[in-house]
Write a structure and sequence with these properties.
single chain, 6-stranded mixed β-sheet, 5-stranded antiparallel β-sheet, 12 helices, globular, binds adenosine-5'-diphosphate, binds magnesium ion
């Protein structure tokens, strides 16, 4: 059984100029131990589709789907209370802006211990012990001391490690990483990706890696969904996608990689791409 199953997901926002479809009939599945990359340019509905799956969109979003299920359980039909027990525990998410995703008013130790208190009901000593273990697992030096620090006292890379520690705190079955390295220095990006892949393999998690970077796809994914303007253009295993891309949009994304481009200037996606429609 798939961990997460999405069929024909549609997300519509009410805007001043009328309804806007940010996600327009997307379907995908992720299995245990599998890394699925969702790739596509900015604004293609990658984040919105995952936020919809997790029930984290504002009320202005209208979400419909033929199926939206986690471990066979219908997410759309369940109460907000039931859903809250799954989100942050069995499914967790890491965002692009690590510093902004943490609360500036509380120490990072408090923030990770809250998750352990709410979802696992650990007592004070148990929470502290587990928080130290988690900081060690994500490579934060001097974990006991670091627990007392506020986000602003830490670098972007260290904050992202804290976010990852919080995300894996309850041993999730599915981790959604939304552009987890985009806001970080290039030198730190690889370390964070390596850390995510190590944790994914150790815990046999399903991982959804959202990215606009084909290099990240090549390094991490088993399977790839290519999204454009809220629609799925193509889905393939990673080797097939790179060796034999079916859609013009995927070919355009690959041609825009620095290795494949010729001449002084990288071509833009719109120069390379002729829209030929979506797949189901
Ligand atoms: N709360 C919102 N209200 C209205 N439009 C939104 C909202 N959130 C996202 N959008 C729009 O939905 C589209 C898809 O956004 P998003 O999923 O964030 O793209 P990306 O693929 O870069 O993650 C964009 O055009 C964005 O402006
Ligand atoms: Mg996004």
């Amino acid at each position: 059984m798939a961990l997460l199953e999405i069929e024909n997901l549609v997300v519509e926002f009410q805007t001043a100029s009328g309804p806007f479809r940010a996600v327009n009939g997307v379907s995908m599945k992720v299995h245990e131990g599998e890394v699925l990359a969702i790739v596509g340019e900015s604004g293609s509905g990658k984040s919105v589709s995952m936020l919809a799956a997790m029930g984290l969109l504002p009320w202005t979003a209208k979400v419909t789907a033929d199926k939206l299920a986690f471990n066979g359980r219908d997410l759309l039909g369940m109460s907000a209370n039931e859903r809250r027990k799954i989100i942050g525990k069995d499914i967790s998410m890491i965002f692009q802006e690590p510093v902004a995703s943490l609360n500036p008013c509380f120490t990072v130790g408090f923030q990770i211990e809250e998750v352990l208190r709410i979802h696992l009901g650990l007592d004070k000593a148990g929470r502290r012990k587990r928080a130290i273990e988690l900081f060690e697992a994500v490579g934060i030096p001097d974990p006991a001391e670091r627990l007392g620090h506020y986000p602003h006292q830490m670098s972007g890379g260290q904050c992202q490690r804290v976010m990852i520690a919080i995300a894996i705190a309850c041993n999730p079955k599915l981790l959604i990483a939304d552009e987890p390295t985009t806001a970080l220095d290039v030198t730190i990006q690889k370390q964070i990706l390596d850390l995510l892949m190590k944790l994914q393999a150790e815990h046999n998690m399903g991982l959804i890696m959202i990215t606009h970077n084909m290099g990240v796809v090549a390094e991490t994914a088993d399977r790839v969904v290519v999204q454009y303007k809220g629609r799925k253009m193509e889905e393939a295993d990673v080797l097939t996608l790179f060796e034999n891309p079916k859609s013009n949009y995927t070919r355009a994304l690959l041609a825009a990689l620095p290795d494949n481009a010729t001449g002084d200037r990288l071509p833009t996606i719109s120069e390379l791409f002729v829209d030929e429609g979506a797949v189901q």
